Amino acid sequence: xxxxxxxxxxxxxxxxxxxxxxxxxxxxxxxxxxxxxxxxxxxxxxxxxxxxxxxxxxxxxxxxxxxxxxxxxxxxxxxxxxxxxxxxxxxxxxxxxxxxxxxxxxxxxxxxxxxxxxxxxxxxxxxxxxxxxxxxxxxxxxxxxxxxxxxxxxxxxxxxxxxxxxxxxxxxxxxxxxxxxxxxxxxxxxxxxxxxxxxxxxxxxxxxxxxxxxxxxxxxxxxxxxxxxxxxxxxxxxxxxxxxxxxxxxxxxxxxxxxxxxxxxxxxxxxxxxxxxxxxxxxxxxxxxxxxxxxxxxxxxxxxxxxxxxxxxxxxxxxxxxxxxxxxxxxxxxxxxxxxxxxxxxxxxxxxxxxxxxxxxxxxxxxxxxxxxxxxxxxxxxxxxxxxxxxxxxxxxxxxxxxxxxxxxxxxxxxxxxxxxxxxxxxxxxxxxxxxxxxxxxxxxxxxxxxxxxxxxxxxxxxxxxxxxxxxxxxxxxxxxxxxxxxxxxxxxxxxxxxxxxxxxxxxxxxxxxxxxxxxxxxxxxxxxxxxxxxxxxxxxxxxxxxxxxxxxxxxxxxxxxxxxxxxxxxxxxxxxxxxxxxxxxxxxxxxxxxxxxxxxxxxxxxxxxxxxxxxxxxxxxxxxxxxxxxxxxxxxxxxxxxxxxxxxxxxxxxxxxxxxxxxxxxxxxxxxxxxxxxxxxxxxxxxxxxxxxxxxxxxxxxxxxxxxxxxxxxxxxxxxxxxxxxxxxxxxxxxxxxxxxxxxxxxxxxxxxxxxxxxxxxxxxxxxxxxxxxxxxxxxxxxxxxx
Length: 788
Fold this sequence. Notes:
The protein has 29 helices and 23 strands.
């Protein structure tokens, strides 16, 4: 009924009097003249103009005004290239001088052309139509309200979940223990889509699916499709299987209004209807703004080669501002001279900005983070404090029962504190979370099966088998001084990880963790990882502290359940942009999480954890209470037993993660008198100085080997090798011991896996020349077998 009455009534046209109509003409003049000025002055440089859908800017103006009047405290926008420069100038308030200076800089020279050189400090910046902005929006009598336009790469729609994460973070109060309190009236997300991208890119559907989920809802998003009826050279019938670009939204019961971009009054009415619906129902609303594209995809493209008939019509079609000016002239609202004077005034303003732009300096490096190395911080907790937190985590509400097998696992955690090596991986994680909350740092953990843990190890949310009630000890922890949230994510990596990235950018003081069900599944979020997570600081000065937990380890479960693609993350490491860790014990994981939480605001960086699978329950990865009560995270762990016979060590074995546990648990290890097995726990930033000291402690070394489970062309080897040679000053033999080079990460047979793992261990720990040669032959044979 609401929608019917809204569509058939006139209330959304009310208040648009003569003065408002003239103000609209002024705004349309600014939008149009800005584009035509750039077109003339920049000699058709790329700008992805708004022309043909000019009404987008007045529509955003109206929605933002209503948000401010309605008491919103923030508006978060996301959009691709089309019209972005205009939105930056007129909605976000970016000075004309700044935009013109960016074009002038591109015309003179490209300062970033040599950014990858040896002198680079990590700052690259981005092209002008990818940049974001933030504005303090202020109207008379209305409290100042931030507007944020989220930066976006050329992967058009991938910014959608990022903006939703921003909005969710803005809506939540995390200052008290328990679940964060959310007020959806605090922040409004607006997503601006392309008509070809909306049905074409799967991240759109993934993001729409988040809209009603407890851990991700933002109380309704206003979507606007900037529909110019052509995607690059692709016509609608070539780019979608539906009648309308917006049809995807029907599956999520989202109201859709199609509006003619040449009808200003209807456009404003649609914008007002969208905001009113969101305010009334806290649900998404979509406007399909149907217009056209005056120029090509970019201003260097010639669309008349591929759509000659369409552009014959467009060339003759009057601009929306000219049509609106004629309407107002006919109504007596303005004279022709007054309308022309508006154009002259905007051009004069742009001329003045062009004259002043020499004073605008291009963005330079961000000096606050460059060259920094991870600081060591205090992460240990007194024994009595750990016991107190452990007991609090085992407390249940009166009358609440726990599934018996689960309760047995948890109750063993009481005895684990007094058992040597008794603290498991998940137990250490729970204690780290509890300690972090007690320090006043909020936590948000999401992922597929995050509540229970993919491997049934975490059990943060308990379920009463009789009543079905839920209880989360970390939410009720009496020692907590901050909020805790854990949510199972939908079966999505792409939108789910993008959401957490956006959340982390908006809430830098929160420990945010996203866990892949298996580490390999990070593949599904590669755009978010490449274009946002690891490069956002270099491109946009966005420092995220998001933690990725990626279960990793070769256990004979096949190619898609073994490798979290460590090599890909290491390849993306530069300029201290992130931390990459493959640790071997529960205590190391405890201290790692505590360190990440302590550095959230002073040294923010993403943390990639190759978290284990089998080691979650393996006693060899367990830790004793004193390991949590003393020390800190160790990037390098020397072989304590080998150090006692340092003068007899001839081979140094370097490894990380599960490979270490397999090596020291093997029957060959006790007899490997000439071998030291050293753990490289933190692969990036690469701990060169520490490793140099370890190498110096073995004066009779004859060789160094890097041992890994992954094939030779994967894993850490190609990253580690040049750093060992260059940074550690090692000039002796240096080689990998691994699976042979392969196109697939792992064997699809448990038997073949066990055989290969046994070969790697034997070759790593046996130092006789005959066995080394045999190992090399087996490596070659393995390479041939995998290739076949």
